[in-house]
Amino acid sequence: MKRKREKIHKLTFREQIRTAPKLFTIYVLLRFSVVLVMIAQIFNRDWQNVALCVFSLFLFTIPSFIERNWHIDIPDTLEVIILVFIYAAEILGEIRAFYVKVPGWDTALHTITGFLSAAVGFSLVDIINRNENTKLHLSPLYVAIGAFCFSMTIGVIWEFFEFSADQLFGLDMQKDTIVHELHTVLLDGSMTNKVVSITGITETSVNGMALGVGGYIDIGLIDTMKDLFVNLIGATVFSVIGFFYIKGRGKGKFARRFMPTLKSRSVDKDDVR
Length: 273
Prior knowledge:
The chain is α+β, with helices and mostly antiparallel strands. The protein has three domains: 101 residues, no CATH class; 119 residues, no CATH class; 42 residues, no CATH class. 58% of the residues lie in helices and 12% in strands. The protein has nine helices and ten strands. It has a two-stranded antiparallel sheet. Strands 2-9 form a two-stranded antiparallel ribbon. A two-stranded antiparallel sheet has the order 3-8. A hairpin with a 2-residue loop joins β6 and β7. α5 packs antiparallel against α7. It is flat and about 70 Å long. The chain starts with a strand and ends with a strand.
């Protein structure tokens, strides 16, 4: 009687350096930068930012952990984008306040999230679709739709997280927007569900105190919807790219830079009584 024993080669840390020196260099530079920022925050006694730095260092280890333990090969391009994304979101966005100082910073990150989430969703469905042990034989269009829905679900769950954090801990993850008009039925004194429009708003007052913001404060709704719209754009772009990639069965080189794959397995045969 014969039994197949499957072995998956796990790259050691030194082997990873030799196979991807550019990725390793970026990884070291980003970690070094985060450590410097963390030291500065320790001197400033800003323990919340110190915790963000520690959390960022932890997030940096996730791609390599997944590769070593889940037998998934993450393309170097995707891994670099993930590392830079973490740095841009946590260190630049939160600690250096790029979300406030740089117009469109949050929008750009949400667009990238939609794109990358669609790539991951594409990989998950495609891996199952190509697995000989499963009975799925999904068309490229169905895989594309599945990847798109996966990306949008990730975006919605993140907005749920932001809303929950704001409500439970008094944060402002769903950034406010200054608007100069509003349309509401709450101000309809006749209670007939008529929309009352107020335009040309130049100031907001709370308890008789002017806030000096130059308009009406929208508490997060516009930011949330904008994030979901740009997530949709990113998801749509990669879903179209992935559709043609699968339809041509891997001929394109661009899509594969963003799609994780299962590592190849080497099979040894042992004779067992």
